[in-house]
Amino acid sequence: MSTAQRATAAFDLAALTHALETSDAASIVSFYDEDAEMEIIDRNRPPSAPMRLVGRPAIEAFWRDVCAREMTHAVGEAISDARRAAFVERCAYPDGCHVVSAMTLELHDGRIHRHLTVQAWDETSCG
User: Rounded to an integer, what distance in angstroms lies between the CA atom of residue 93 and that of residue 100?
Assistant: First the structure.
């Protein structure tokens, strides 16, 4: 088995999807390298000044906050290979606010090394 095949087998997109959809922060964080980087771009964090999280502890704090919120998560349009994964996550809050996030992941040895999220929030119903 080649290195690329091992990396593909080691990264389980279905398990990540399940963790996201069940708001399981600990499981989500387990997919990241210790030195992973995460970048988030949205209306409050434009491309010129995105949110940047470096290292698993910072990424863990982010996911614990997100997963503690009362909201639903649905993952779709998912695809992955040995080096990359991408998907769209659709979230809904009880007050009717919806968020759509397009995420791309760079993988290294079957773990997330770089994560980019570009997201859009409902302008009228979200605070």
Answer: 12
What pTM value is reported for the model? 0.86
Instruction: Identify the CATH class of 3-121.
Output: alpha beta
Q: Which residue has the tokens 């996550």?
A: 89
Distance of alpha carbon 23 from alpha carbon 65, whole angstroms: 10
For the record, the structure tokens of 21 come out as: 């959809």
User: Which tokens go with 65?
Assistant: 């906050």
pLDDT in tens, the chain (127 residues): 444 444 344 689 999 999 999 999 999 999 999 999 999 999 999 999 999 999 999 999 999 999 999 999 999 999 999 899 999 999 999 999 999 999 999 999 999 999 999 999 997 656 5
Q: What angle do CA 55, 61, 63 make, to 5 degrees?
A: 100
